[in-house]
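Table S2 (text version). Query chain:
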Amino acid sequence: MSRECPRRLIGLALAVLAAFRFAPAGAMEAPAVSTDRELLVMVRISPDHFRVGGGYGTYGDELGQSARDRIAHKVARRYGLKVVDNWPMPMIGVDCFVMLVPAPRAVGATAEQLSHDSDVSWAEPVATYTSRAATPNDPLFPAQPAATQWHLADLHRMASGRGTRVAVVDSGIDAKHPDLAGQLAVNRNFVSGQALVAEQHGTAVAGIIAAKGDNRVGIVGVAPGTRLLGLRAC
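Corresponding structure-token output:
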């Protein structure tokens, strides 16, 4: 792996962290929009065996943090910026500072300048993401195991199953159920000698997969954007 690859991975991780740090809850679907003149500036952290608070003493990392604060403010003065916030991330080897770029300087060009500074590991404009979906208003959503175990609301901001088809080979599905109305592209019966009827098991499985969200009814499916192929086989 090249040296540039870890830098890019760290930059991507920090962009995501910045989205959650600075944006309203719910993010990651809409395109990124640069905020008002802020930069993420990652100050280099010395290796653990050289760093104060690296595990050899009982005084914590206060001195190391103070040193990195001084470096960040020195960098800010060097480029005419203002430090407005910071949070340390020692597990990935950087200390992240937020710096304000004065108008009318270009934020992107300033980030590029800082990226070449020997005291800086990485710099990039802060990005804000706005959500197109809030936490579902379905009354039983909080009781669903997947809601907490799979972080379902967050998952749906990235992927909802839209554009996919899922075949449910099971007992009959109630296509008129309020959580499933409009969710079935096909609802066919393959049991000879019997008419298609709505049955509990097939309906429950269909709901787990594709129950509609934000309709103030019942639950939310794992993939509410998908369309079902209901195939009654038993």
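Notes on Table S2: The chain has two domains: 4-128, 141-232. The radius of gyration is 26 Å.
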